[in-house]
Design a protein that fits this description.
The chain has a single domain, classed as Rossmann fold, CATH 3.40.50. The longest helix has 20 residues. About 35% of the residues are buried. It has 9 helices and 9 strands. It binds S-adenosylmethionine.
């Protein structure tokens, strides 16, 4: 039966949230996101290069410039996946920062570990620690870290406000929060082209390379559902962060948000 819009739902209706453009029960979203990354983990790095023509490397490099990691810093890269950001931090500091990768998906952590072993890494004490954990309930002590990074991860979290509160909790006073995420294109002429690319070519590439079209439809949809630049800045202020700012990369296809725990 189709219910008229004005009629209220049953009193015990489960709260829902978005998973791409679909509505799913809140309690199911994390598992659905996990399925996406389990499915694509072995082809994740290759897909990133193909989808972005390598531009994600420039964005990440620019992101690390802003972080400006120093030897001795304790840094967590949340939703760190296969460890791209963590490896860049270690390279910049000659392995002298203490980096932990925290990700909810063991399959992504394992794909990253295997890649590092193949490249001859992980042989010394500077290798990142790998922790399987949820951004909404971080397994780290209060005020224990100098910096928190999250790249292309926040979009996948069910309760962004909880993840931001957790980020602030684990940072030391004076600690730096940095988020790299897809955002809103700010050049009107580019937007339709970008939409066409996202909703046609991207899923086709996903089908061809990762044998998974649906995960790349989710990617395109989840980008559109993620809070735009100003909205995310407001969420950071609401979470208690100070000196909140952001800057666009590639006309707003991505953005870096920066905030500090005072
Ligand atoms: N940061 C990496 C990068 O830039 O290449 C990986 C980004 S990948 C698009 C998103 C990652 O977020 C996946 O590895 C996924 O497992 C992780 N993830 C999704 N939801 C999460 C959550 N609630 N807590 C921690 N990690 C999560």
């Amino acid at each position: 039966m189709v219910r008229p819009m004005s009629e209220p739902g049953p009193p015990d209706a489960q709260p829902t949230t978005h998973f791409g453009y679909s509505e799913v029960p809140v309690g199911e979203k994390t598992a659905r996101v996990r399925e996406v990354f389990d499915s694509v983990s072995s082809r994740y790095d290759l897909m990133n290069d193909l989808m972005s023509g390598g531009v994600h490397r420039l964005w990440k490099s620019n992101f690390i410039d802003q972080l400006n990691p120093q030897p001795g810093m304790e840094i967590v890269d949340v939703a760190g996946g296969t460890g791209d950001v963590a490896q860049r931090i270690l390279t910049r500091t000659n392995g002298r920062a203490r980096v932990t990768i925290c990700d909810i998906n063991a399959s992504m952590l394992i794909a990253g570990r295997d890649r590092a072993i193949d490249k001859g890494g992980l042989a010394d004490d500077s290798a990142p620690d790998l922790v399987c954990g949820n951004a909404e309930e971080l397994p780290f002590a209060d005020a224990s870290l100098d910096a928190y990074t999250i790249a292309f991860g926040l979009r996948n979290v069910t309760h962004i406000d909880k993840a931001l509160a957790e980020a602030r909790r684990v940072l030391k006073p004076g600690g730096h929060f940095l988020c790299l995420e897809f955002s809103r294109v700010v050049v009107p002429l580019l937007a339709p082209l970008y939409d066409r690319y996202s909703f046609t070519m991207l899923p086709q590439l996903g089908a061809l390379v990762a044998r998974d079209q649906d995960s790349y439809v989710y990617l395109a949809e989840s980008i559109r559902k993620f809070p735009p630049q100003e909205e995310l800045a407001t969420m950071l202020r609401d979470a208690g962060f100070d000196q909140v700012s952001y800057r666009n990369l590639s006309a707003g296809i991505a953005a870096v948000h920066s905030a500090w725990r005072i």
